[in-house]
Write a structure and sequence with these properties.
By secondary structure, this protein is of the alpha/beta class. Helices cover about 20% and strands about 30% of the residues. Strand 8 and strand 9 form a beta hairpin. Helix 1 runs parallel beside helix 6 and helix 3 packs parallel to helix 6. The longest helix is centred in the C-terminal third of the chain and has 19 residues. It is elongated. The two termini are about 30 Å apart. About 40% of the residues are buried. Bound molecules: adenosine monophosphate (AMP) and magnesium ion. Magnesium ion binds next to loops.
Length: about 400
């Protein structure tokens, strides 16, 4: 059986083989959050465009301000002021943070280190040339690469685009991800469940996970555990680039997803992974669609989505797959797990000062979605460890939406 990282690598390799040049769309910069940039963005001018003061103080010639020196202040410059007049030797100019240094001045003295008596300013300590300003063009020259194509746009990337004057951005369209739950017991969330029925929460969590991952969810409802209903609804799902199914992939008599897909021509790259929860997860391809069959227990569905579906969405979005952001933390209480599978236990990461500590949460197994309300991460117990004493360093995987 594959380890989760072997399985993930297969997803990455197959998604790359499968990805084709994507259509693009033009978006206002304020609507482009989470999209992947399809063009290169270059700087329109030098950054900063002038020697920019980083302090409130006095622009000087450093050589003229040894400790105790006193100079006449001949004016002031605030952020946004045009500065043309050359700096006269033997004077200083009051300057605000963000303002341009007068040509010829080579340092800013912080106001905290000066005393002022009318227009006479006394400097309490010596200044070095280059102090307290950012030189023109030190961040970027005109025409430098500001944002490469293939970058997923977060708030900082959008700010850079705005800074260099791009009010619209060419982005890749988001990959459409069909979502199909399966199970005779599963009913729509608007219906009243009979005593042995359950509401379709997986379609809701998967829709949310697809959105957060940067995909465009296409919910298809639920299929009964019958060949005809499953084939008909899978057929609709095969119109999209990715199809995510929940349920019906275990060993039960009514777990038909894999056999129905096989009958429709699917090829599988894996059909089990050495993890708990989530062992029966399957990944394959049918015609032009990548297919993930995730186990139906809600926590299994969520964990396997985070491990395996997110990298496929990244790649089909035109981006590099984001790595799994494992962190190290100190185990708060001893743990006993069966060896053989890598466990992803719902857990809570807390910090005392800056030291992360992790507690595994009490839960009733992978059907216990309520336990996840308190979980901000999954505690990763490697397959070869069963008794882990409190105080050991362990690995945790932050929940993709809360940390
Ligand atoms: P399965 O993987 O089909 O064996 O499903 C395992 C269990 O997951 C079922 O017994 C249900 O309790 C639960 N389950 C399956 N599908 C869903 C769903 N769409 N929403 C919520 N829970 C589900
Ligand atoms: Mg089922």
């Amino acid at each position: 059986m594959l380890t989760f990282s072997e399985a993930r690598n297969l997803v990455i390799a197959q998604s790359r083989r499968h990805s084709t040049p994507r259509p693009t769309l033009s978006l206002p910069v304020s609507d482009a959050l989470g999209f992947v940039l399809a063009e290169e963005i270059r700087t329109d001018r030098e950054y900063p465009p002038f020697h920019r003061s980083t302090r409130d103080g006095y622009a000087v010639h450093a050589a003229e301000t040894p400790a105790g020196a006193s100079l006449r202040c001949v004016g002031e410059i605030k952020a946004g002021d045009s500065v043309h007049e050359p700096f006269a030797s033997g004077t200083c100019v009051q300057i605000m943070t963000g303002a341009a240094l007068p040509p010829g001045s080579d340092a800013v003295v912080m106001i905290e280190f000066t005393r002022r008596d009318r227009d006479q300013v006394t400097f309490e300590r010596a200044t070095q040339p280059g102090q307290n300003f950012v030189p023109r063009a030190s961040e970027a020259s005109a025409g430098d690469l500001a944002l490469p194509a293939g970058l997923r746009l977060g708030f900082a990337e959008l700010a850079v685009a705005a800074q260099v004057g791009h009010s619209t951005l060419q982005c890749h369209t988001k990959p459409r991800v069909a979502i199909l739950s399966t199970g005779d017991e599963v009913i729509s969330i608007t219906e009243t469940p009979g005593p042995f029925q359950i509401r379709n929460s997986n379609s809701v969590s998967l829709t949310a996970q697809v959105k957060l991952a940067g995909g465009d969810p296409v919910p298809l409802g639920n299929a009964l555990d019958r060949v005809d209903d499953l084939s008909a609804k899978i057929e609709v799902g095969l119109r999209e680039e990715i199809l995510v199914l929940s349920g019906g992939v275990s060993m039960g008599k009514y777990d038909l997803v894999e056999s129905v897909l096989k009958g429709m021509g699917a090829k599988f790259f894996f059909d089990a992974v050495a993890i708990r929860p989530g062992k029966p997860a399957v990944f394959g391809r049918c015609r032009n669609t990548l297919i993930f069959g995730l186990p139906g227990n809600p926590v299994s569905t969520m964990v396997t989505f985070q491990l395996f579906v997110i990298p496929a969405i990244d790649i089909l979005s035109g981006a590099d797959p984001r790595p799994l952001p494992f962190l190290e933390a100190t185990l708060a209480e001893p743990l006993h797990e069966k060896p053989g599978l890598t466990h992803f236990l719902p857990a809570r990461l807390t910090w005392t000062d800056s030291h992360p500590q992790v507690h595994a949460l009490r839960w009733q197994g992978s059907g216990d979605v309520s336990a996840l309300i308190h979980a901000n991460c999954f505690l990763v117990v490697p397959a070869d460890r069963h008794d882990i004493p409190a105080g050991d360093r362990v690995s945790v995987l932050p929940r993709s939406d809360v940390l």
